[in-house]
Amino acid sequence: MDLSGENLVAGAPARGTGPQGTGPTFRALDPSTGLALEPAYREAGAAEVDAAVVAAEDAFRSYGGSTPGERARFLRAIADELLALGDAWIERARAETALPLARLQGERGRTVGQLRLFADLLEEGSWVEARIDTADPGRIPAKPDIRRMLVPLGPVAVFGASNFPFAFSVAGGDTASALAAGCPVVCKAHPAHPGTSEMAARAIGRAARATGMPAGVFSLLHGWAHEPGLALVRHPLVCAVGFTGSLRGGRALFDAAMARPQPIPVYAEMGSINPVFLLPSALEAGGEALAQGLAASITLGVGQFCTNPGVLLGVGGEALERLTGEIARRLQAAGPGVMLYGRLCQSYAEGVERARAKGARAVGEAAAETAPGRASPALLATDAAHFLEEPELWQELFGPASLVVAARDVAELERVAEALEGQLTATIHGSEPELRQHARLVEILQRKAGRLIFNGFPTGVEVGHAMQHGGPYPASTDSRSTSVGTAAISRFARPVCFQDFPDGALPPELRRANERAILRLVNGAYTREGV
Amino acid sequence: MDLSGENLVAGAPARGTGPQGTGPTFRALDPSTGLALEPAYREAGAAEVDAAVVAAEDAFRSYGGSTPGERARFLRAIADELLALGDAWIERARAETALPLARLQGERGRTVGQLRLFADLLEEGSWVEARIDTADPGRIPAKPDIRRMLVPLGPVAVFGASNFPFAFSVAGGDTASALAAGCPVVCKAHPAHPGTSEMAARAIGRAARATGMPAGVFSLLHGWAHEPGLALVRHPLVCAVGFTGSLRGGRALFDAAMARPQPIPVYAEMGSINPVFLLPSALEAGGEALAQGLAASITLGVGQFCTNPGVLLGVGGEALERLTGEIARRLQAAGPGVMLYGRLCQSYAEGVERARAKGARAVGEAAAETAPGRASPALLATDAAHFLEEPELWQELFGPASLVVAARDVAELERVAEALEGQLTATIHGSEPELRQHARLVEILQRKAGRLIFNGFPTGVEVGHAMQHGGPYPASTDSRSTSVGTAAISRFARPVCFQDFPDGALPPELRRANERAILRLVNGAYTREGV
Prior knowledge:
By secondary structure, the first copy, chain A, is of the alpha/beta class. In chain A, 38% of the residues lie in helices and 19% in strands. Chain A has helices spanning 46-63, 68-84, 86-97, 101-124, 173-181, 194-210, 227-234, 247-258, 280-285, 287-299, 318-334, 342-357, 384-389, 410-419, 432-437, 439-448, and strands at residues 7-9, 12-14, 25-29, 36-42, 131-133, 146-152, 156-159, 185-188, 218-221, 240-244, 266-269, 275-278, 311-315, 337-338, 361-362, 374-375, 378-383, 401-407, 423-429, 449-454, 493-499, 520-522, 525-527.
């Protein structure tokens, strides 16, 4: 496929005018070679941001009122168009991210799968949370008829993530859930994979044309500069923001959105350190399987997962030391891996050094010098008393590293848990009796995290109905919402109620007949019947 | 009942230490006489704020894990204790607010009713939105078991409103929904009715003791100064904020919450101008009933409702002029009313003058001079072209006033609708064929408001399952949430999911047996069966 290097505004190529003070073009780099990939991409400027948002607002007039069936067809057409990109899409993503083929194939499956899952959700229809309280004209004062459902917010800004070039990027979860809810999307591509992003955006454009959707339903903007992204978040017609990335980036967008004359919701998923608590029985049983599972989770995708287990906590002693040694040996054996882009790799190396400067000691042999762009897995260690005193060690270290924290006893483990900031996940390894015995630890962790895992590993986030991906700040800016799974659709919707509207003037979901038999709360009782 | 004039921190009287730079005590004033009411109330300071929040956090350890049945009993006990206050509560509220007896009796019924409604909701149990995706160990990779439900956020700050001394105050909707969700409450009473507030807080305290709830589950703080309220919102242990009041007040709290190191949700309901669109047939049929309904809605409670119809819009001409004259005549006949407190009354008078200075003309005779504290209803008028040019006229004018806006045609009405800011409500009067004919107007208003009303009046907000009270900014800071009705419970909760947890370690709502037969989404299908 020929890549144009253009921004795509409402389906049409748009020359990037560039943000002030930055170069007008950039190229993706192959992180495994450091070589530039063609074509040059044009940085978007204020003109493209405005054109894309105005087109999205215009598109919302029809798209916001499209039927669930129309939107389901659109989402399925996107899935088909993405698959039709074939190996070319995977190859470009591999060149831009250095992620392995099998991983990218799996991620493509997940991306296509979640688009189809949202299509199913739309066809089932109950996601609108319809509620009906019928009238009682005889009551004094007369009780009106009130009918409530979720409706789409309006144009949504989506920021692609670097670490999932398919599943959390242009055609990823935020785009899928926003389009499913009825919201047009203006996507700012992650600049580390502009070609992968352009291919996805063109696939969405073809799907829009094939299913009769307005062109402004999707636009793609490119660039490394921060200004266009901030301009997008500040644009008065943008109604919500989805973001996956760093704490610094997410907080900057959040602050910009909250300072608007009309603040808007920001769903920024900003990663976390995903503590893993190793209770005594797990350490004692310990051995191979646990060390292997933890090492694999730490090094999966060169540690570039928001759910990477960044802290392993246990009661200090021989068992923990043995496990630590086992993990270190495996990390050493795994060897260096190519990270997504150079700056990330440099940040990782600096982060490991900073942790050591703050008193974490390296476990195992020092990593050999590696080629540029490659990161060596690192296992660090400290004790709980020091960990509690050194908030620098609570920071996410994005890459294949983890910190072993040795506590004096389980009570000290609980104190560490209490001190933790918000997390995407928290994991406990142990026996069922231990889980009962340490119910307080579970209570504490429930307060801290969006997902609690027992005897498993935090990497690997199922796309389903029950997934919660998002936790208390700083894991995300809105712990009430998830960025993975079908529940994500409601982040781009709000309730509206209709009082005493004639049946024919109501949205189909609220009409008496309930022709699609969606689940509704009618006078306090759930039913699929008409009313 | 003897009033103490003390703050109530975790059930115990606490001498207010006072905010820096303000007097240490204040008294409520009877707005109809201007006379001070005993006792003197002590302004809360930083010490009471901290003590109350720390007690709330401590209480959360047990209250957050209380059973739905325990919380239901607590809510019902609060309702009973409020009723047991008898006439004394109503009398004190009347003295502090000048609201008429019948209105206060009705509001008490609503307050007690909503506490009981939340108790019913807890007993039914499905509000936790349980979702279960069962495991598939045979899949590659193995699919885990994931179970998700809503859990309480933690301590909540509630700010009482001046205009509903019962229903949106100490034991009002925000407190009821937060307590129902499992969140302890620290309430900042509105200083215009401290005695009414103290009585309610003591009733909650008695209910807590009678049902074995921890004392820190509820605290009450007094004062006119802004600092304690801001300190409350900034307190690191506070997890969410509920507020009903002015745009300026709500935005200040919102800004403080968003600037925290860990931002928290703020549900500020800040009023609106609640536009009423009078389509041609309504104006032609017009006459008595419509004029009477509108005048009654404008003057209800001396116009002190967030849903007061502040703008009446129609196509200009004889019919609109006739209706305007009719409404003006009725407003004149209604005569002046006592507003909730002096400053509010002064703001109202200034607002009417400002609107006139900005080009709105007064309809009907100039209001006679009234006694201090009393506001005369006012009907103002302008044309749509001027209204569109003068954003000052889009501001809420809190009190018994409304502005008639005459458009050239329905297309111009639509342009006005497009220009409106976010609203709690929008109303359309007309025929069913007109509603079909002007579907675009409905579409526009759906984008602007939380509740759309056909051939009715915006005042009167039903407490039920289907109510949506809250709209796009500046009507509220979070259009995704309602402050009235059972759906309000989810504003103080967030989802947590459990991965591969043993059945016995799960909350009862997520266990296999589903003993309470709550509605759950199991592998994508709604069911009350076990799994």
